[in-house]
């Protein structure tokens, strides 16, 4: 049996044998732990914020969204696996089925391209991210919003498609960039790129909520103990032994 991927890429074979639809991601490994942690953070935060439809995703999609990172997007059914693909560091597709994928294959997703892409700059990718990818996202993908962030230098910019061209998103007073597509904001906190709600609330991770709840409970216990000690001290000042009270 002849493997399709060994057939020379002539016009006839490309037309007769389009790439398989279950292609694995063809992305290179991440450069640093900073990049890996940043990608994981952005994905986990968004999945948690929109979990189980508890908070409506933008445009009423609720659970109908897909977010992934360092995963290949194949965007031409007429080409072979080794052409017409890119691997955004983080991308979000709205109005999409939420399930695990080996890659995002446009022709198997009703022609849907990502709504938002975030690229993490590095020494080896920064030039491509600022030029080649930006032009691709603007002219071919027609990507509504494109952001880049450097985990080391903290360079952070965003662009929104307007009349077919990218225009820089102007930061608000807090330095955050508004995502119209996601109805959220992106901003830097503690040298990391984080999601924020429109009201300025930083979207927390589950462990951060647990830590905050624990700290609040501990603070409440301290306040209750201090109030009890003050009451006991007052009773003793009045000649009353609090230990003998019923």
Could you characterize what this model shows?
The structure is a single chain. This protein has 246 residues and is of the alpha+beta class. Helices cover 28% and strands 20% of the residues. The chain has helices at residues 11-16, 33-49, 126-130, 132-139, 206-237, and strands at 65-68, 73-74, 85-86, 90-94, 104-105, 116-120, 145-149, 156-162, 165-168, 177-179, 184-189, 192-196. The longest helix is centred in the last third of the chain and has 32 residues, at 206-237. The model is unreliable at 1-26 (pLDDT under 50).
Strand order, biggest sheet?
1-4-6-7-8-9
Instruction: Kindly report the average pLDDT value.
Output: 81
Distance N to C terminus: 91 Å
Could you name the CATH topology of the largest domain? Answer: tt1808, chain A
Task: Write down how many β-strands occur, each being a DSSP E stretch of 2 or more residues.
Answer: 12
CATH class annotation of the largest domain: Alpha Beta
Taking the sheet with the most strands, its summary is:
6 strands, mixed
Strand content: 15-25%
Low-confidence stretches: 1-26
Number of domains: 2
Going by CATH, the architecture of the largest domain would be Alpha-Beta Complex
Gross morphology is elongated
Structural class: alpha+beta
> How do the SSEs run, as a string of H and E?
HHEEEEEEHHEEEEEEH
Question: With helices defined by DSSP (H or I, 4 residues minimum), what is the helix count?
Answer: 5
Radius of gyration: 25 Å
């Amino acid at each position: 049996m002849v493997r399709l991927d060994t057939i020379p890429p002539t016009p006839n074979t490309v037309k007769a044998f389009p790439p398989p639809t279950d292609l694995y991601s063809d992305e290179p490994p991440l450069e640093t732990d900073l990049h890996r942690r940043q990608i994981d953070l952005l994905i986990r935060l968004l999945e948690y914020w929109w979990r189980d439809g508890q908070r409506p995703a933008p445009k009423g999609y609720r659970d109908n969204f897909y977010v992934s990172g360092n995963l290949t997007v194949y965007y031409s059914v007429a080409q072979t696996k080794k052409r017409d693909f890119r691997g955004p560091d983080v991308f979000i597709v709205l109005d999409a089925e939420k399930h695990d994928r080996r890659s995002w294959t446009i022709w198997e997703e009703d022609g849907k391209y990502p709504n938002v892409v975030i690229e993490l700059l590095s020494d080896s990718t920064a030039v491509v991210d600022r030029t080649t990818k930006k032009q691709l996202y603007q002219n071919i993908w027609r990507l509504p919003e494109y952001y880049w962030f450097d985990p080391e230098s903290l360079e952070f910019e965003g662009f929104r498609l307007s009349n077919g061209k990218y225009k820089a998103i102007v930061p608000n007073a807090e330095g955050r960039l508004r995502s119209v597509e996601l109805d959220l904001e992106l901003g830097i906190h503690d040298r990391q790129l984080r999601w924020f709600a429109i009201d300025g609330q930083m979207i927390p991770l589950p462990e951060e909520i647990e830590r905050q709840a624990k700290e609040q409970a501990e603070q409440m216990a301290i306040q209750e103990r201090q109030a009890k000690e003050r009451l006991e001290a007052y009773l003793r000042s009045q000649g009353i032994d609090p230990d003998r009270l019923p």
